[in-house]
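Bumping with the actual sequence this time:
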Amino acid sequence: MTLPMSKISECDVLSCSYNIDNKCHTIAITVGDPSCPMCDTFFESEGKGGDMDVLGGIGACRTSDCRFNKSLECRAGDIHVGVHSGHADCKTYTPR
């Protein structure tokens, strides 16, 4: 059985190359490491990338203490990505 991928409902990181109109347009992002829910897919460039027909999802979550993390997969219905300390973070992150 394939589980549905959690989607990125909103992204406030306007400088990201995949952000167009506060939506993430890459197929999937990777979130974090064991201590920080940072969007590891965040990328700045002069042009925008991604696919306008795609609403990004979470391919993997490595933030082990998030209550939505089940076997490195995000089980939140959707997430919000925003700026935190100068980088992109999953704002839906909730410690266990």
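The tokens above came from a reply further down the thread. The chain has one domain: 7-90.
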